[in-house]
Amino acid sequence: MDAIQENIAWLNSPVQYVKGVGPYLGKLLERLGVATFEDLLYHLPFRYLDRRSIASIVKTLPGKQRVLYGQVDAVGEVILGRRGRRVFEVIVTDGEGYLTVKWFHYPRKFFQERFKKGEKFLFFGEVSLYRGEKQMLHPEVTPVKEFFEEEDFQKHLGLVPVYSTTEGLHQRQIRKALDFLMEGLEGRLAETLPEALRRKWGFPGQAESFSRIHRPLDEDSPEVWTALRSPFHRRLVFEEFFYLQLGLAFRRQRAQVLTGIAHEAKFRFQEVLRNKLPFALTEGQERAILEITRDMCSPRPMNRLLQGDVGSGKTLVCLFAALLSAENGRQAAIMAPTEILADQHFKNFSRLLQGMGIPVRLLTASTKGKERQEILELLQGGEPAIVVGTHALLEEDVAFERLSLVVIDEQHRFGVRQRMVLMKKSEQPDVLVMTATPIPRSLAMTLYGDLDLSLITELPPGRVPILTRIMYEKDRPKLYDFVREKVKTGQQAYFVFPLIEESEKLDLKDATKAYEKLREIFNEFKVEMLHGRMKNQQKEEVMGRFSRNETQILVSTTVIEVGIDVPNATLMVIEHAERFGLSQLHQLRGRVGRGGQKSYCILATDFKQSDLAKERLKVMEASSDGFKIAEEDLKIRGPGDFLGTRQSGLPDFRVGNLVSDLDLLEAARESARELLEKDPQLALEENRMIRPILLHRWKGRLSLAQVG
Ligand code: ADP
Ligand code: MG
To answer: What ligand 1 atom has the least distance to the C-alpha of 280?
Structure first.
């Protein structure tokens, strides 16, 4: 075994084999997610106690955490009050001042043995005043056996790390385990970052970083260390990001050497469509189409993420891509997360492509029998075609003969695996994933570091900004008046209710009740309800009536969140707005403001909410920039919640933070790509150690079979 393999084996050792840990403490540590030596090293202190110097009793102000030195002057038990509460008191002096140290609970025998007149101790704790005297309650105590020698104190002083722990596991047990683990760490741990890279960014070594984080020196700043911003922390963060980015870069590189389909830009159908559109494409759309066209015409498979705010017109962009595929006599598959959305795309495409002779088909779970059979035969027959669908496209018997383009709409609604299943239905098709949840750059880089990125940053012209207001319960009558007034002028409104999975039935009952009430209140209009439990055909009918303005008010659960386009709807009332994530609110809000009319989004909520919830909703009032909102959301909720970790395949970071360490993420990405460009096989001597570490780091996180 070479050094690195040996290292990895050592890091993988179960934590119970750390000296002094054993099976019992090992179990407790496992509860903290610390299962191996490596986990323990990464179990970083979340704050530090400042015990660097001994304070003078006289000069210490009450309310401060201090280390005080004292020689016992008097000891005794005091009985307090009528109930006879016992207090153990020790009066100590440092030669200038006096301090009374008190315990309300104590092992009497042990204490009487321990605190004898003349004995010396260090006391750690908060100094307070009691009847004009300085006191410390229940301090931590360290005996000072020898006479006043500088080194004796120094042993006990310094920045003391504080670890997150669990019941039954003491700070000092964690500290001790780490002391043992870190003994001789410098010789034990081989460096994991290539020398050149470390020099370039000025990063300290790995072993040094661990020691310095777990056992800071006196000159180190407890604030900087607690904020995880020391050079040693930053090195570990960089390293964590670097290996993630390297894995992604590796995957990207592998994809580039694959041979895919080289389309040929004939501008036949594309031009026809362009001339048919009643508006000009935005600059962002044009750029995206160009980038996609370039990718599709190159022999390597396209792997592109199209990001654009709600309403930025991504659908058209993907239609242009689909036409390029059709022009080349090939097939395109477009997968959307809901039937309503798939159906909308289907109708849209059919209308726009009328007379071009390209078959457009819709394949969802409701497509059955002969109709489904016809579609399967069409696709297997190899004729050019565009098929729009839902998860139903993933079914095993859906096979393509000449599939050259796969589009995933609202990518964040699908898992990585689902994307893969669709891609596997052809040899190296071009892949375009689209998302209207503007994913903050840091997340996009982590999740999709292996994808190329197209961005549409502007909305089509003529959009009137949406006015967003938080509304409290007391103003509800006013809200109803407002809605009534607008609907009377021919506009339409959404009322949206949250549906949260665990309590789905209950929420649905709530929403249904509210619907009955709204129907009474607005009895002069037609009010209908839409929710996820309805049969598809029913849903479609309801949507259809709403889009034809036969229904004026649509009461809905979040099924309308994704992609629905009814330009005449100008009012969106979101009930219990505090229950939604910001990005979700932004998505919902994007359902209005699609025509040229002034649109409104009302966030209804009641008073009993936390400041945090209020702050969040205020972000919605203040901003209509999806990216900004997403950044805020990420800050507030953390990356796991933001996307739903299970689905997204987002790795958990041990030290890195996607929000505050963005600079390091970028540096890591740049370094990873550079390294692979110079040494695509990781064959250079100085990079030889990278591959095993990469495999080790990626184990159990993202599938990275290609690296092996
Ligand atoms: P999203 O990016 O959210 O999927 P859509 O593709 O649904 O947005 O587009 C929203 C609306 O904007 C649609 O009604 C579409 O027809 C319209 N649209 C798209 N591009 C343009 C444009 N360049 N100018 C005007 N309207 C456009
Ligand atoms: Mg869309």
So the answer is: 23
CA 574 to the chain's CA centroid: 24
Do 533 and 563 fall within a single domain?
A: yes
Mean pLDDT, rounded, of the chain: 87
The two structure tokens encoding residue 433: 């994933």
| Rounded-to-integer distance, Cα 681 and Cα 668, Å | 19
Q: What is the pLDDT of residues 669-698, one digit of tens each?
A: 889 989 999 998 889 988 988 989 998 888
The Cα–Cα gap between 213 and 89 comes to: 37
Among 133-147, 287-301, 493-507, 615-629, which stretch is predicted with the lowest mean pLDDT? 493-507
Domain coverage including residue 432:
268-456
Q: Alpha-carbon torsion 608, 609, 610, 615, what sign?
A: negative
Q: What is the pLDDT of residue 431?
A: 94
Query: Which of residues 135, 156, 177 is at a domain's end?
Result: 156
**Tokens 């990781």 belong to which residue?**
682
pLDDT in tens, 614-629: 888 999 999 888 888 8
Q: What is the pTM of this model?
A: 0.67
What mean pLDDT comes out for the span 374-397? Answer: 95
The answer to whether position 151 is within a domain reads: yes
Nearest CA residue ID for atom 16, ligand 1 = 313
Q: Are residues 377 and 503 in the same domain?
A: no
Is 114 part of a structural domain of the chain?
A: yes
Asked whether residue 411 falls in the same domain as residue 486, the answer is no
Q: Is the pLDDT of residue 334 over 60?
A: yes
Among 279, 281, 309, 315, the mutation site with the greatest number of ligand 1 atoms within 8 A of its Cβ is 315
Ligand 1 atom closest to 348 (CA):
16
CA within 13 Å, CB half, 287: 13
Tell me which residue of 487, 461, 349 sits closest to 409, measured CA to CA: 349
Predicted local distance difference test score (pLDDT) of residue 143: 84
307, 312, 351, 412: residue to mutate for ligand 1 pocket, most atoms within 8 A of CB: 312
Looking at the fold, whether 559 and 479 belong to one and the same domain comes out as yes
Residues in contact with ligand 1 (CB, 6 Å cut-off): 279, 281-282, 285, 308, 310-316, 436, 460, 563, 565, 594
Number of domains the chain is built from: 3
> Counting ligands in written order, which one lies closest to the CA of residue 314?
1
Query: How far are the Cα atoms of 12, 37, 688, 694 from residue 5, in angstroms, in the given order?
Result: 10, 15, 12, 12
Residues 147-197 have pLDDT tens digits of 455 555 666 788 989 999 988 898 889 999 999 999 989 888 989 999 999
288-314: average pLDDT: 92
Tokens of 215: 């056992």
**315 CA to centre of ligand 1 in angstroms:** 7
On the question of pLDDT at 702 being above 50, the answer is no
SS3 of 257, please? helix
- The residue among 623, 658, 679 that closes a domain is 623
The residue whose C-alpha atom lies closest to atom 14 belonging to ligand 1 is: 565
> Do residues 87 and 76 lie in contact, with contact meaning Cβ atoms separated by under 8 Å?
no
Tokens 């007391």 identify what position?
A: 474
Q: Which atom of ligand 1 is nearest to the CA of 279?
A: 24
